Amino acid sequence: MAKFVIAGSCSCPYYAKLELLADQLVGNLEQFKVHKVVLPEEQWESWLKETCSKNNWKHKKSPIVWRELVDRGGKGMLMGGFNEFMEYAECYYGITSNIMTDRMLKIKKENMATKSVTVTEEKAFQSLSKPIHICIVNATNPVAYHLIPHLGNGKIFGSEVEVSIRMLGIHETDETLQGVKMEVEDLAFPLVRQIEIFKNSREAFQNASLIVFLENPVEDESHLEILVKNHERYKKYAEEINEVALPDVKIVLSGSGPLNFNTHVLVEYATKINKQNVVAVSRLQERRAQAALARKMQVNASGVTNVVSWGNCANDAAKTTYCIDVLSAAVRGYDGAIWGPDWHSRSLADLVYDKKWLNDEFVEEHASHNGKMIKSMKHSTSLSEAASISSMLHDWIQGSESENVYSLGVESEGWYGVSGCVFSMPVRFKDGSYQVVWGLTLNDEIRDKIKKIELELKKDLRVAFKVEDETENEVFGEDSALISSMMSQMESPSKTPGEKLEVIREEDAEEQPAEDGGEQPLTGNTE
User: Fold this and answer.
1) Any idea which architecture 2-125 has in CATH?
2) What does the angle CA 259 – CA 430 – CA 162 come to, to the nearest 5 degrees?
């Protein structure tokens, strides 16, 4: 069977003549098959160049004809253009075309009109689909490679919501992102409407519904240099988000480095965005703690719930800047004396008898876990980080199926005595939103750690913001004079309070008297 492909510009009269000859051959020869490719005039040259480059052909004008080797596979065999196909048809089949010039021109006009209608209909059909725009900043980060399938499979946004994924590179990384783009296209996700590469952040943020910032660890700069540079970078991002992103855009930060600081900068300068929509992901810290506790209890990691990570959200956070709280944690599936149905759980604190392990070895194991995995794998923990982001986004957008407590970095408004900074807090997800869980039972040790962590995190903020704190000089130590000098040269943002986060108060938590250091509920409107 002979199968030929004829392609040309809709404005080419020779394509029109060739098309009629091909139709005549199909009508007279049972085994002769033709596939036609007609393109708008403005697309023809780029399409021809790409097709010839892919097949290693040399052809420069319309039309082009090749034969598909359908019985043997492999690439097509170039025949040539108008003259070559006319000669082939006459020599092999004794058929030629005597069409006159005026009819060729008439068919050319018909082709152009038909193509114009077809293009208009395609655009109208595409306009019926309104995908949500998702921007991944620093898309060369390996986390993005693992995150994109989660964004495109329909589990986060819903099985009927199409997505347009925008990959923003912050360095010259066209070749890498082009490879990722091609691989995502190969996934053939029906809900991925488009995947694009951007160099300009303002264009990438245009009408975005979700922006995910991924941060790499930086080793060749001092911590102070990183803070100064990130302040300027995220301030610029915030101003662009104010101008071009959707008003209800969700902004998620994940990764290493000063994650809480970066999130706070966005909260401060993105004044048109509800600050509840700007969060830092601390779920990976939480999940690592769950896994360590599960190994100790010999249960599945998913059976350990309500573990809270307080403070720093970064995946490489120093152990002095975060605290893992298991006072409210529960365990399902534990092989002990008391049995129950699958949903039955018991307090973890009651089951872990080795308090020394819980207070010392567990803390050290959790703090060193990230470094050990990187040393073992010779690369970052991108798979688990992507899964943590995906899980958090699913709960945030779709809601959590359970009443479990999760950890999330939010701009604190005074909960548990913390204010004026981004802090990982206990939250619950429901109906496309989240609420801070206020009133968890805390002991004096946890309260003391939370206060110290707050002071530690506010050290970074003094690089760019005025932080009201009586212990400023004491906390910041020898760098306080340097920071004061830098602050005097920087404008402090005019903060718009925005809407306050909703608060859930634990009904079963007993209110502690003030003199015992118990947590007191916030007063005023929290809606």
Assistant:
1) 3-Layer(aba) Sandwich (3.40)
2) 75
Is residue 426 reached through a cis peptide bond, with omega within 30 degrees of 0 on the bond before it? no
Which residue blocks in 128-173 are alpha helix, DSSP H? 142-152
Which two three-digit tokens encode residue 305? 């719930």
- % of the chain with per-residue pLDDT over 90: 46
Q: β-pairing, 208-215 with 192-198? A: unpaired
Closest CA to 198 of 257, 133, 139, 271: 139
Segment (H or E) for 17: helix 13-28
Instruction: Measure the CA–CA gap between 249 and 15, rounded to whole angstroms.
Output: 49
> CA separation (Å) from 341 to 40, 134, 332, 502?
65, 41, 9, 33
Rounded to whole angstroms, how far apart are CA atoms 263 and 281? 10
Secondary structure (H, E, C), 168-204: ECCCCCHHHHHHHHHHHHHHCCCCEEEEEEECCHHHH
Q: What residues have CB less than 8 Å from 484, skipping those under 6 apart?
A: none
Higher pLDDT, residue 494 or 377: 377
Query: What does residue 264 show for φ and ψ, rounded to 5 degrees?
Result: -65, -40
pLDDT: which is higher, 261 or 70: 261
Residues recorded for the chain: 527
Residue 154 CA to residue 161 CA, distance in Å, equals 7
Q: For 163, phi and psi rounded to 5 degrees? A: -130, 150
Round to whole Å and give the CA distance between 14 and 99: 11
Residue extents of the structural domains in the chain: 2-125, 129-274, 283-442+499-516
Q: What does pTM read for this prediction? A: 0.69
For residue 227, the tally of other CB atoms under 10 A from its CB is 23
- Sequence-distant (6+) residues with CB within 8 A of 262 are 213, 215, 230, 234, 253, 280
Q: Does residue 337 sit in helix, strand or coil? A: coil
Q: Which fold has domain 129-274?
A: Rossmann fold (3.40.50)
Name the pairing type of β-strands 250-255 and 208-215.
parallel
In this prediction, residue 93 has a pLDDT band, given cuts at 50, 70 and 90, of confident
Sheet with 304-305, side-by-side order of all strands: 304-305, 330-332, 345-347
CATH of 283-442+499-516 among 3.30.230.70, 3.90.110.10, 3.40.50.880, 3.40.50.150:
3.90.110.10
Any residues with CB less than 8 A from the CB of 423 and at least 6 apart, and which? Answer: 260, 310, 311, 409, 410, 412, 453, 454, 457
User: Could you report the per-residue pLDDT of 15-48, keeping only the tens digit for each?
Assistant: 888 888 888 888 888 888 888 888 888 888 989 9
- Report the SS3 class of residue 234: helix
- Beta strand 345-347 with 330-332 is antiparallel
Q: What is the mean pLDDT of residues 241-254?
A: 96
CA distance 490 to 189: 47
d(CA 319, CA 75): 59
Q: How many CA atoms lie within 13 A of 132 on its CB side?
A: 16
